[in-house]
Design a protein that fits this description.
Strand order of the largest sheet of chain A: 1-2-3-5-4
Shape of chain A: globular
Order of helices and strands of chain A: HEEEHEEH
Oligomer: homodimer
Distance between the termini of chain A: 35 Å
Number of domains of chain A: 1
Number of strands of chain A: 5
CATH superfamily of chain A: HIT-like
CATH architecture of chain A: 2-Layer Sandwich
CATH class of chain A: Alpha Beta
Largest sheet of chain A: 5 strands, antiparallel
Largest interface: A-B, 68 and 68 residues
Strand content of chain A: 15-25%
Helix content of chain A: 25-40%
Structural class of chain A: alpha+beta
CATH topology of chain A: HIT family, subunit A
């Protein structure tokens, strides 16, 4: 548990949440500022700040828990799909520095727009590939 | 391998890609329609359609591979953060029905906007929680 971490306090029961599921490793609760109905957060009970620190011992149950929560949420709100999203760092929209996954139910008519794509040539893409491979 | 799956064909080497990493279970290549520089896809070599079908045997190496790719990409493009995103179903923006994770580098000045949040009362949130818990 990290001092001054709101998610650690929620996990410890010191701050209330709208819990919808948990197991030994993860807690799932509704986001109080939802993007769509049923928007939930999947939070590891152990504190670590972001995806880069996601510890190996949690890997095994991660997707199984996401699947279990998605099934319940999507079924209840009658969604047509869902996004799983992890924001890593402030520039990526991370606000709470206790790693978490957004589970956002999606609806055919929700009008949420994907981010725009950039124009890039195959040559530029190849140059970037080379730089990454050499890094 | 699934017939008529573009990602299976890329994995088999029948269609080229800008590969930047791979291991026994996953392949990572640059998105040809990037949202930001370094936008990459992390694709399991085994075909399954979406997050709901993510098989247990792949869990163990998933985050380790994402971390490895994120480190290389973020370092090369000098990003300030990154998003990991999985779109499940057409309503969520999934276009290729071979599960994949978007790794999107983020920059302090990239001006990509988060989706808007809805207003919801704590009472409404509590009612939704009850419905999910009873489902």
């Amino acid at each position: 548990m990290a001092d001054d971490c709101i998610f650690c306090k929620i996990i410890a029961g010191d701050i209330p949440c709208n819990k919808i599921g948990e197991n030994d490793d993860f807690l799932c609760f509704l986001d109080i500022k939802p993007i769509t109905d049923g928007h939930a957060l999947i939070v590891p009970k152990k504190h670590f700040k972001d995806v880069m620190e996601f510890p190996k011992e949690l890997d095994e149950g991660y997707f199984a828990f996401c699947q279990e929560m998605a099934k319940k949420i999507v079924g209840t709100v009658k969604a047509d799909g869902f996004n799983l999203g992890m924001n890593n760092g402030r520039a990526a929209g991370q606000i709470i520095f206790h790693q978490h996954t957004h589970l956002i139910p999606r609806f055919d008519d929700d009008k949420l727009e994907s981010w725009p794509h950039k124009e890039i040539t195959l040559e530029e893409l190849g140059e970037l590939q080379e730089r990454i491979l050499k890094s």
